[in-house]
Write a structure and sequence with these properties.
The protein is mainly α and 232 residues long. Helices cover 32% and strands 3% of the residues. It contains 8 helices and 2 strands, in the order E-E-H-H-H-H-H-H-H-H. Strands 1-2 form a two-stranded antiparallel sheet. Helix 1 packs across helix 3 and helix 3 packs antiparallel against helix 4. The radius of gyration is 17 Å and the shape is globular. The relative contact order is 0.16.
Length: 232
């Protein structure tokens, strides 16, 4: 999913003068807007209180070179996605917004762009303020080694955390990514999509989502977990 271009993020909440990326950035074919409704929800929650002055959650789904332009005061770019999710979760929790909390958790689990098909993104080594966020890591490129098992485990843990806050654990399936791309595909297009103008998320509307687990597996994973009980 390799592309050589200047990253141009067309965000409705920014004008062209809000930020600039003056040099080409080596990156995956874009997919950061694939889960647009999750991104929109997290943006709304983050904007309630954004002490680190993160320009927009979408930067957290980019590779580090591009993410740096919108990371605000966050200096550990491998942890930008966690920082966004953590603050959005905190804000939604203060507002008693279960949907906002759920979407913050889903956002934490989304795949980040990397440099090529099959390349894993670096995991954050910091600890989130909220244990529900701290329990989750991001999906990995589906063409990377062991991705199916890794991403399934992430989805099941996400379901547990969603159940623990009183959300619908089946929403964890929304965090899934695309079918694996071809490691030898010279175009690097893979099976991704990226459409900031699709409010429903192109991965959903184009039926590109690959669910990591079955509903039965999700229900089995969350058995016995109730709101406030904490995920075990």
């Amino acid at each position: 999913m390799l592309s050589y271009k200047v990253v141009a993020l067309c965000l409705a909440c920014f004008t062209a003068s809000s930020f600039s990326l003056p040099v080409p950035v080596r990156r995956e074919v874009p997919q950061e807007h694939s889960h647009e409704p999750i991104l929109t929800s997290v943006r709304n929650s983050l904007n309630l209180n954004n002490p680190d002055k993160i320009q927009d959650p979408v930067f957290a789904l980019l590779g580090n070179a591009a993410a740096a332009a919108g990371a605000g005061d966050i200096t550990d770019l491998d942890c930008l996605q966690q920082a966004v999710a953590d603050q959005a979760f905190t804000n939604a929790k203060a507002a008693n917004d279960i949907e906002g909390m759920t979407n913050a958790l889903i956002f934490r689990a989304l795949e980040r762009n990397t440099g090529k098909v099959g390349l894993k993104s670096v995991l954050c080594t910091q600890t989130a303020k909220n244990p529900e966020v701290a329990a989750i890591q991001q999906h990995q490129d589906p063409a990377s080694d062991g991705a199916a098992a890794t991403n399934k485990a992430i989805a099941l843990e996400l379901a547990k955390q969603i159940a623990s806050i009183g959300g619908n654990p089946l929403d964890a399936l929304k965090s899934g990514t695309f079918a694996p791309g071809d490691l030898n595909d010279a175009t690097a297009k893979g099976n991704t999509c990226d459409d900031p103008n699709d409010p429903n998320g192109c991965i959903f509307t184009q039926n590109l989502l690959v669910e990591d687990a079955t509903e039965e597996e999700i229900n089995a994973a969350v058995a016995g977990i109730t709101a406030g009980s904490g995920a075990k």
